[in-house]
Amino acid sequence: MNTLELISLVGQFSFGRYNLTERDKNLYLAYLNIADFNLYQIIKNSSSLRKELILFFDDDKNYVNLPEDYIKKIFGANDRELLSDNKLFGFDVTNNFYYFDNKLYINKSLLSKKVDVNDGLNKSYVKLVIIPKKKKLVLNIINPNSELTTPIYPEEYHIGLVYGATYELFKSHKGYTSKIAIAYKDFEHFKKCLTDYYEREK
Question: How far from 114 is each of 96, 104, 120, 174, CA to CA, in Å?
């Protein structure tokens, strides 16, 4: 389901609204993003989200710019692990590499070389294992690097975002105690299902 479909369901599940104003849509989208943030925390360490990325060093530079994604590991020559997520922010004088200002500076003797398909040159490189940065749910994509119109989860789990958004919506309004309890129960059940799904992927 895309964000417009999800927003429509939030309107129907919460107050039985079918004709949503622009204000309603923006409000429900904000709650969908809160729910999405909570769900992303469940799945972010799943192996199915991890990606490998090769970064090549230009001959005249001893650093590469790192992506904005969450970096789990960095490997050098012969797949030797240089850095892992619990020690990325710092330096290692002994091994001659350090991280500063979103750049990885390194002694190239720690690296292997291979051909960069972009220019055909043999270059030093590092291999990264990354988890893509969470993207914001929007109605219309302006920046594809940071925005989505369809959640990243399999479609059968999209309804969980509606449960979560409905729960957050009711929390922000007084006088909906019983509805909050039902929405909370549905959302907690969904989070357990999603956790189980992604646990199988680790």
Answer: 21, 19, 9, 62
Which of 79, 113, 131 lies at the terminal end of a domain, its last residue? 131
Dump pLDDT digits (tens) for 39-56. 888 888 788 888 899 999
C-alpha closest to that of 31 among 140, 195, 167: 167
Phi, psi for residue 130 in degrees, rounded to 5: -125, 160
Q: What are the beta bridge partners of residue 65? A: 103
Do 55 and 127 sit in the same domain of this protein?
yes
pTM to 2 decimal places? 0.70
Residue 118 token pair: 């972009």
Range of the domain at 81: 51-131
Q: Which residues contact 89 (CB under 8 A, 6 or more apart)?
A: 99
